[in-house]
Amino acid sequence: MPRALAVTCKVICLLLIGVVGSLLSEKNDLQFLVLTFSVQFKSVTLGLLPLQAEPIRVVVTGAAGQIAYSLLFSIAKGDVFGKDQPIILILLDIPPMLPVLDGVVMELQDCALPLLREVIPTDKVEVGFKDIDAAILVGSMPRKEGMERKDLLKANVAIFKTQGQALDKYAKKTVKVLVVGNPANTNCLIASKSAPSIPKENFSCLTRLDHNRACSQVAMRCGVSSDKVKNVIIWGNHSSTQYPDVHHAKVNLSGSEVSAYDAVKNDAWLRGDFISTVQLRGAAVIKARKLSSAMSAAKAICDHMRDIWFGTKEGEFISMGVYAAGNSYGIPEDLIYSFPIQIKVQVQSPKQRNVFFRSAAHDLI
């Protein structure tokens, strides 16, 4: 038989870097923020073996907690960064949780996941943030009984300032940072300001859980699956002050897209109970299960990071807390705020990927 020929091919590695300029994108009179990513190619030589990308390093903080427990398996099996993207998982938590992390490591090993190349448990930020490509900051100080908001903020300032400084010192400058720990918007801003060498647009906070909740509520009301609902918007904070907005949402009914208002046919519900249900859903979950949202939060984290890595679907936008600089909605610029976001992936150069943050030029309302 003839000798197998070596094949040289280029592999798309969807990593994100810095900010460049602004661009207006318009869809049905909605002005929304656009994040544009370029794509890195890397040449590799193959014999008869399948093509393998270089592993990426992903850190999850609060890794011994319930959200992380629901999250880590999805990351490790390729649901977030791709089915052909090897992963090195770094699990960061406080020293008392290290024995729990050992158990999590054993479970991940026992899953025998082909993409999971290594699992590193640690309580040291210099290990946790070393050369990472993506950071998912789940761990934060929860609000306890009798604790005032100022006490909660003080505790979290210390946590996210330390983590931001560690990102600045040890992480790749291309790292993409998702803040989940509450108050997510504030914690994200603190981390960003503590990492001045990393572009602010590389930081985002999670409002995708609220976005998913809004989609689900509309879908249940219309008797369709949640993937038939698109372009809902969460404005503002991941808190009860958020504003869930369906004025530009579409629902696919029997193959035809109609507005959410036409699909639901109940304006009073959309302007009343729908909004309050989404705003207070987290509290309702806590009241029912005596614990905060974990499974749904993990799913939302996966959705958020996958869209950063691969882009949003054509004609769709999602909700994401991002740095407000350059926005056209009158939101103060030095904030992390949830906007409608569209993400596109573009080939930029053979060796580098860049993130271009595009802000809208006109107000939606």
Automatic annotation (TrEMBL):
GO terms for molecular function: L-malate dehydrogenase (NAD+) activity. It is an enzyme of class 1 (oxidoreductase). Belongs to the LDH/MDH superfamily. MDH type 2 family. Catalyzes the reduction of aromatic alpha-keto acids in the presence of NADH. Plays essential roles in the malate-aspartate shuttle and the tricarboxylic acid cycle, important in mitochondrial NADH supply for oxidative phosphorylation. Catalyzes the reduction of 2-oxoglutarate to 2-hydroxyglutarate, leading to elevated reactive oxygen species (ROS). It comes from Oryzias sinensis (Chinese medaka). This is Malate dehydrogenase. Residues 57-203 form the Lactate/malate dehydrogenase N-terminal domain. Keywords: NAD, Oxidoreductase, Signal, Tricarboxylic acid cycle. The lineage of its organism: Eukaryota, Metazoa, Chordata, Craniata, Vertebrata. Residues 1-25 form the signal peptide. Pfam families: Ldh_1_C, Ldh_1_N.
